[in-house]
From TrEMBL:
Domain FeoB-type G as annotated: residue spans: 264-321
Pfam families for this protein: FeoB_N, NOG1, NOG1_N
Name of the protein in question: OBG-type G domain-containing protein
GO molecular function: GTP binding
InterPro entries to which the protein is assigned, alphabetical: G_FEOB_dom, GTP-bd, NOG1_N, NOG1_Rossman_fold_dom, P-loop_NTPase
Keyword Endoplasmic reticulum: no
UniProt KW keywords: GTP-binding, Nucleotide-binding
Signal peptide (from-to): none
Residue stretches of biased makeup (Pro residues): 14-26
Amino acid sequence: MRAAAGGRGFLLHPRPPWRAPATPPCPPPPATATALARRLHHRRLPEGILSTLERGVSTLHLRRWVHSATCGVTLHDISQAEPVNGAKSDLVQKHEKVGAFQRIPMVMPATDILMSAQRKSRNVPPTKGIANIAKRERNKGAKQLDALMKEISVPLRTYTENFPKRRDLHPYERSLIELTFGEGYYEKVIARVDALRKKINSVGKQHASVCAKSLTKREAEERLSEGRKKLEEAFEHGKWVIDDLVNIAKTLRSMPVVDPHIPTLCLVGSPNVGKSSLVRILSSGKPEVCSYPFTTRGILMGHIVSNHERFQVTDTPGLLTRDDDERNNIEKLTLAVLSHLPIAVLYVHDLSEDCGTSVADQYITYKHIKERFGDRLWLDVISKSDLLDKKTSSEFDDADDEVGRYRRFGPECAIRVSVQGQVGVKELKEKVHQLLTSQMSRIKAGTIYQETQRTDDNAPGQT
């Protein structure tokens, strides 16, 4: 078709239907910031975009689908700035959190798994429409063996996949696993459960295949019976690993959860100095209180609610006077809390020696812990002050050295408390509230700092 325009002739062709190409042909190489600024200075770019380019953007891609007579070109409507510092986004940054133990799946006892699998597999019918008796029987046998195999192996696979990997846990929870079960035991049990699953799958597939090749109804029934027997024997032989997993799940789920975002008071000291008694008067926790050492054999939790604010309190096992590499796992639980959780320390001293640990040994342990964790917010408490008041002055006639001063006065600014006589309890509660309020401010400041750091790391132009 020919038309006239301004005295000149040209051809008009019907416009072909437009489709965006799957892959844009011959995309131009990314332009540098300076070159792109010179080339596009006459276009209306978003305000401030060129200053952004000059400051820290290595490339800018402008994309829009444009149709021409020769090709389809791809240009972005939205500018995409690529950081030059290689900072990771929040989507790939991994933040360690506690509470993984409470998400552990419930583990069925081995007997229940087998009984459920047997019941469900026996109810599996043959495929409909098979008229031949032998074919129908071997079909049913193969399907029932396959169902028995799956009903046993699927729960095992669920456990191995949903129990947390140790490397993904918070350092505090990793320490709890190691100190509770021993080095490598947790991983070994998970691996044994997975090995049992693989064994069940191997035996089940083998006998289902054999049953599917039966030539007569009787042969199919015999092979079905034999397959069931072999599967059940394989499971019975290895079911003890499921019992181990049940015990691990129960133990881990019963462990207290310490929320690192809530201010936490950690009571530390030698065995039987009165930590558990103080937990009982300070919080909702009700630990066992006895007159013998190592009453506390785990991390016990309580909570304080004051002025509509909620705080946490942990009672930890007592520490003996010895090097860290000589401590037992019960003592190491205390060190795990101090090392891996953002806590405030309430250190408890018994200068009456009613706890069974000498003042000199208590001082050595206190000095070691104070030097190692002195950056934490700290409050010293001298417990059993009613017993201390009954001692005569002659009992404190030590040489004028560090231990002697510690025996007479305790640490500087320590609060004297007697739970039995209700001495100093009110002052202790006030000091604890002040300490935890300061701890809350410290946690909030740390959270703000981390968020600022993540924002700065992901911001364009940072090096």
